[in-house]
Design a protein that fits this description.
Elements: H1 3-11, H2 22-28, H3 31-47, H4 54-78, H5 80-83, H6 101-122, H7 125-145, H8 153-157, H9 159-162, H10 164-173, H11 178-201, H12 203-209, H13 214-217, H14 220-237, H15 240-244, H16 249-271, H17 275-305, H18 316-319
């Protein structure tokens, strides 16, 4: 399929010309996702040995953030047809008629190229290539291929959201490490139970849009089993940073306690299968999973940048 035909396909339901406001283009960047990317990439960057010039570090984070936003814009361009059919996404800028598909496509492409080139200049070209691959993986592998083809879309496609710590580490060192792979694995394992919990509640939306999310294809009971299995793997895996020595005592305590809560909530999702209580259990897991990942990376960040006694943390200046 050519790019021209792709543009035509995306334009058909939204053929009118739109000139969105600044806030509409900001929404195309998926700012909530972008903030998570910045946060996790910063941890990967600070974890790297040898330090990084603070100005270049800030510039690198900016490039990574823009690359993540570009991915979001291109995702919204491609998914405009199914976004219009789902209550959760129907008010996004393109289906809402505030931004034309061609505008979103051009916006995403310019930001993609610009972010990669900028990261290559301010950091190194290995990190830039990694960022380019991440954008490609999210837009082409996940959005264009996996999302509409397989119920494992969020499992495989979740790798795109797990790459930022590795890109941050690469920006500081020009390479990757076992520690950065562990951070990747943490986000990778977190993604399925996080999104499948929401998908249990929004399965009608996905079915109407023809997206083969696991609850639609395999059913809610199989989804609940998979959520529990992934959570049971995730919780002990999250302790690895402490076991490997780049997470301290505080991280160990937080990862064990919050991992226990994740397991408790996943067990409740597995057991409660009918009525409003089932949806309530799923949304509780979905909501806590956001806090869970934030706390893990926040503690890692705190141990890296604050002089916390007994945790082996380095000062922010020493790391940056």
């Amino acid at each position: 399929m050519s790019l021209v035909s792709d543009i035509d396909r995306a334009d058909e339901p939204f053929a009118h010309v739109a000139m969105g406001e600044a806030r509409d283009f900001w929404a195309l960047l998926k700012p909530r996702v972008m903030s998570l990317v910045i946060f996790t990439a910063l941890v990967g960057m600070l974890l790297a040995p040898g330090g990084m010039n603070p100005i270049l570090g800030f510039a690198s984070l900016l490039a990574i953030a823009v690359g993540a936003g570009a991915s979001g814009a291109l995702n919204m361009w491609w998914d405009a047809d199914i976004d219009a059919l789902m209550s959760r996404t129907a008010k996004r800028p393109i289906p809402g008629g505030r931004v034309a598909p061609g505008e979103a496509l051009a916006f995403g492409l310019v930001l993609s190229v610009g972010s990669v080139l900028f990261l290559g200049i301010v950091a190194n070209w290995f990190a830039a290539a990694f960022l380019a691959f991440t954008i490609f993986f999210y837009v082409v592998v996940y959005s264009m291929w996996l999302k509409r083809w397989t119920a494992q879309n969020i499992v495989i496609g979740g790798a795109a959201g797990a790459f930022p710590p590795m890109v941050g580490y690469a920006a500081a060192t020009g390479s990757v490490s076992l520690e950065s792979f562990v951070l990747f694995g943490l986000i990778f394992l977190w993604t399925p139970p996080h999104f499948w919990a929401l998908a249990l509640v929004k399965s009608g939306d996905y079915e109407r849009a023809g997206v083969p999310m696991l609850p639609v294809v395999a059913g809610p009971d199989a989804t609940r089993t998979q959520i529990l299995v992934y959570t049971l793997v995730l919780a002990p895996f999250a302790v690895l940073p402490a076991a490997m020595g780049f997470g301290g005592l505080l991280y160990l305590v937080v990862s064990v306690v919050t991992g226990g809560i994740m397991i408790r909530d996943a067990v409740r999702v597995y057991r409660v299968r009918e009525g409003a209580e089932a949806n309530k259990a799923a949304m509780r897991l979905f909501g806590f999973s956001i806090l869970y990942l934030f706390l893990l990376f926040a503690v890692l960040l705190a141990e890296l940048v604050l002089p916390l006694p007994g945790l082996g943390a380095l000062s922010a200046l020493g790391r940056f």
